[in-house]
Structure formats: structure tokens, C-alpha cells
Amino acid sequence: MKIYLDGKFVDSAEAKVSVFDHGLLYGDGIFEGIRLYKGNVFRLDAHLERLEYSAKAILLKMPWSRQEIANATCEACRQNGLQDGYIRLVVTRGVGDLGLSPWLCPTPSIFIIADKINLYPAEYYTKGMEIVTVPTRRVNSAAFSPAIKSLNYLNNILAKIEARQFGAPEAIMLNDQGYVGECTGDNIFMVHKGKILTPCAQQGALKGITRDTIFDIAQEIGVPIEEHDLTRYDLWNADECFLTGTAAEAVPVVKLDGRQIGAGTPGPIFARVLEAFRRRVLTEGTRI
Ligand code: PXG
Prior knowledge:
Helix content is about 30%, strand content about 30%. By secondary structure, it is α+β, with helices and mostly antiparallel strands. It folds into 2 domains: about 1-115, D-amino Acid Aminotransferase, Chain A, domain 1 (2-Layer Sandwich), CATH 3.30.470; about 120-285, D-amino Acid Aminotransferase, subunit A, domain 2 (D-amino Acid Aminotransferase, Chain A, domain 2), CATH 3.20.10. Strand 1 (about 1-5) and strand 2 (about 10) form a beta hairpin. Helix 6 (about 210-220) packs across helix 8 (about 270-280). It is globular. The structure holds 3-[O-phosphonopyridoxyl]--amino-benzoic acid. 3-[O-phosphonopyridoxyl]--amino-benzoic acid (PXG) binds near residues 33, 185, 186 and 247.
């Protein structure tokens, strides 16, 4: 496998970063997870815009243009002969002495891994997923904005561990006020009386690229959609529930904390959303 690392393609065995990189020492860096579908990098421009926003939020000045990063991303897919896959684009603060000051690091690093993707089992999409709510709360959005896709995912990882301990593949994370934020690596949506609802970023949700796509799809298929504060009570009484993310795409949820949601099967609005999503992934984005 060839990895793009600071302007060059190198074999994966040589793709190494320093132990003094602050991305490793402090989680000081940002990333994007992007999908390649049949030679189409889905919404690449939106991912690179979010990367720029994350960089700006942590005062990391990226010395590369959006076009340069886009070209490197597409080239990483071509170099590895991929038509379908998963792209991990990482920008670290770079190498610096010990101490958390980012000004110790004069040069940020960038690397891009284009690889095959591990998908959820197909039956999650046909039968629906069973998930749980975990005790680990989402970090308060005033302390650390959930919109920053940073290299520090411990909050989500702790929740993921708890999900697994409860035998679930994904978990709902509530924020410190008890409102639904998101899942460990996915945004959450519910359907109630024909309307799609999802928490806003301030309640602890990443501004997901797939989430944005659901807003466009809802408009396309004529289903009202809005951001709304959501509690577990709302989910218990939802007609449908589904998760979205770059890896998960859109996946239905039929049980939460052992309680059946809606009819206990993937719902009709979800089916329309998924159908529209699978059409869009082939047309919206950048050809490699
Ligand atoms: N919330 C969180 C916390 C995420 O990490 C999403 C929502 C969905 O956002 P997108 O932009 O993907 O629709 C994410 C994205 C992985 C992996 O390797 C995780 C994500 C994306 C791709 C791969 O586990 N999380």
C-alpha cells in the first residue's frame, strides 16, 4: 500500500511519524474520513471545507491549498488501484519539543491512507440495528466543540467500549444535560409523525457530511426535516430511527436499550432515504 506523507508517496512500512509529533503526544491534529464509491470521492469538497474549519478552530495553519489536498487524495486512491474504499486524511500539528504549546511545532504534517473499507454486516440494513445508551457523556460543546474533528477521540472511544460491553455495535451519547448528542462515530436521526428530527451541533453532534446529505435528501423526497433537542423519551416514542456516517452510510435502528422502536423493523421513510443516498454517492463528488 502506498501512503501519501508530506508531499510524497511511500510504502506503508516507511509511512511513519515522529514520537515528537504533537498529534501523537497530545492528540493535537485533525482528520477526515472519506468514502470512495466506484471511482467517485463522495463530497470531497465538503470534507476539505470541514477540514479547513477544524484547522482554523485549533489555529493550525495548513500550508497546502484545498486543490493540492484534493489532488493528493485522488492520487492516493489511484496509486492503490482503488475504485471503492475508505480514505483517512490526517493533519497533525507536527514535530515539536515536549510541552503542549502548538508554537513548538513549526511545520504541520499531512498523511493520507486510502484503503479498503470494513462495512457493517448487511443484515443491519435489512433487519435494523440494536443499540444502547451509554453512561459516558459527550464533552460539553462549550468546552470542546463537537464540530472539530480532532485526533482526540477518547470521549467516543470510552463510549464505544461501553457499547461493546453491553453487546451493541453503536451507542447513543447524551450530552451533560441529558439531551441526545450523537453516536460514537455516527449522527442520529428519528422520524416522528412524518418529520425527520436530529440534534443540532450545540447539543454534541459533529456536523456530519452524511448528515448534511440527509437534509438534501429530505428536501428531494419532500419529507420535512429539522434540528431539534431530543431526549431518550423522544426516541422511545419515535416511529423510526436511523444513524448516518461515512462508514455506516445510513443504517436503521430498531431497538434502543432493549426497547423496540416503532414497528421494530426499518421504516418506510428510512427506506426512501437509503435509496436516495445510494444513488447520490455515485454522482456527488470528485472523479479520481
Ligand atoms: N459523529 C462522529 C463523532 C463521527 O466521528 C460522524 C458523526 C459522522 O460524520 P460523517 O461526516 O462521516 O457523516 C462521525 C464520523 C471510523 C470512522 O473509522 C468514523 C467516522 C467516519 C468514518 C470512519 O470509525 N466518523
